[in-house]
Structure formats: C-alpha cells, structure tokens
C-alpha cells in the first residue's frame, strides 16, 4: 500500500519528521554514559528527558492533525500508532530507572531505531513523496516482536519444564535419600552380621584347631597301638610260615612216597586192565553172536506178529460189517412195522378196505354185527 503526499501536506510532514529527528539527536546527546554514578545525574537527566518527551508528544499531536486532514492516509495512521507505542514504552522505561545499564542500552537502541526510521522516511518523502520505508520498518518491527514473543513463550515453556524437572529432581533426591538411608541401615546390619560371623569364625577356628590337635594325638596313640599289633601279627605270621614250611617238607616227602606206591599200583592196574579188556572182548564177541541169533528170531516173531495182527484186523472188520448189517436189518424191520401201523391207522380212520363203514338201517346193523 502506497500513500502519495504532495503540496503543503508534504512540507508539513517533512517539518514534523525533521523536528522528530532533531529531538532524537538531542536525546542521544543528553544521555551520555558519563552521567552514570554522578550525584546530579538524576536531576539533569530527568529534566532533559521530560523536555524531550513533551516535544515528542507535540510532534505526535502534529502528526494526528495531518492524519485528520487526510483521512485516506491509513498508512500514516499506522505509523503514528507505532510511534505512539514506542513513545509509551520510552515513557515507561524512563519512569522506572533511566540510569540503569539495561534501560540506558534499550533507550539508546530505541532512539537509534526511531532516528534511522524517521531519517529514511524523511528522505523518501522528499524524493518520492511516499512512506514505503516507514511501512517496511513497521512490518519488520512486527516480525521482530513476534519472533521475540515466540522466544519469550519458549523461554516460559522451558522455565515450566525446568520447574517440573526440578520437582522431579527433588522427588528423585528424596527417593535416593531414602534409598541411601535404607542402604546405610542395611550396611550397618551387614556390618553387625559380619562382626558376628568374625566372632563365630574365630570360635570355630579355635574349636577346629583344638579338635584337630586332639584327633592328631588320638591318631598317634592309635597308630602306636596298631604298630604293636602289626608287629605281633608279623611274629605270628613268621611262626606260621615256619610251620607251613615244615609241613610243606613233610608233605613233599609223603607225596613222593605216595607217588612211588601209586606207580606200583598203576602198573598193577594196567596189567589187570589189559587182562580185563581181553576177557571183556571175548564176552563182547559172544554177546554179538547171541545178538545176531536173537535178531533173526526177533524178525521171525515180528513177521508172525504182523500176520496175526492182519488176521485179527480182518476178523474185526468182518464182525463190524456183520454188526452193521444186523443193525440195518433191525432198523428196516422197525421201519416196516411203523409204516404198517401207520397205514392200518390211516385205513381205519378213513374207512378204507376191510375197514369200510356199512349202510344205514339193516345193512348198518348187519355191518355192526359183523364187526363184532
């Protein structure tokens, strides 16, 4: 958006802007760093700043008058509002403590910024008759303020997080303190147990030492006694070995004598064996001959037995056939008798043949008499 200024309005705007630039230059000259720390600094600076503020207010009133003359100059209105805001901030800063280093630095920055903006706008108005640089400066300042506000918000968020983390840290410290206290108590308890274990271990060591010494003494006595017993056993075994050696010699002599006697007996029994073998061989030959003769008789008897057995079997078969034939004839006779009885009964029941019924009347009576 561009606003063209011409004629008397251009002269008025240039005059107002030039007046503002001069007053800002004067403000920069009346606030040197040498005033800081001097006794008369408050009165001198206060009077000068009050004069500058009043002059700025007059310049602002003049800009408002120009705005009322040209109602279509919306950009000038926004510029005047921004200047008014900056003047209010300047007033608030000056009223707090103008001689503090932070306030002095901020006032210098704001003054330099306003001076540069006004000088640029004045040059643009003189050359082109527009206030584009003022609008650009206002937009840039808005962006800076938005960025600063974002930084402030993030800083506040960081502070809140820091406080939350501090609270968590305090809770963790409390927990760690309690844990440390519990561990210290546990350490003291373990130290007590360690001391008890040391005392107990010392007593056990003494007991084990005494027990070991006693066991060693008992072992030595037992070993001495066992050595004596083993020496007695050695002597006894030596006596037994001597007796065994003598017994062995006597046994050897006895066995040699017995061997000679057994040799003689062996010769006797060998001779008797040969003689008995000859006798038994003769008996065996006799038995073989008897066996052969008995075998021939046995074969004859077996042949006769087989023939007799065949005759007996044939006789049994004939008797069995005869018995079966007699049984068959008996069964046939019984069957014929039963058939005859059945046939007679049938003839009687049905009146067939000689059992036929007679006529009624006389013939019937005669028939009855005949039956009788």
Structure in words:
Helices cover 89% and strands 0% of the residues. It has 372 residues and is an all-alpha fold. The chain has a domain at 8-35 and 45-130. It is built from 6 helices and no strands.
Number of helices: 6
Helix content: over 70%
Structural class: mainly alpha
Major beta sheet summary: none
Quaternary structure: single chain
Proportion of residues in extended strands: under 5%
**In one word, what is the shape?**
elongated
Low-confidence stretches: 34-41, 69-75, 360-372
Count of individual beta strands:
0
**Cα separation of the termini:** 173 Å
User: What is the radius of gyration computed over CA atoms, rounded to a whole number of angstroms?
Assistant: 81 Å
Arithmetic mean pLDDT = 77
Q: SSE string, helix = H, strand = E?
A: HHHHHH
Region (Disordered): 350-372
GO biological process, one term: sperm axoneme assembly
Main location: cytoplasm
Subcellular location: Cytoplasm, Cytoskeleton, Flagellum axoneme
Give me the secondary-structure topology.
Elements: H1 8-29, H2 41-69, H3 74-96, H4 101-127, H5 132-350, H6 362-371
Helix pairs in contact: 1-2, 1-4, 2-3, 3-4, 4-5
Subcellular location: Cytoplasm, Cytoskeleton, Flagellum axoneme
Pfam family, one: IQ
Region (Disordered): 350-372
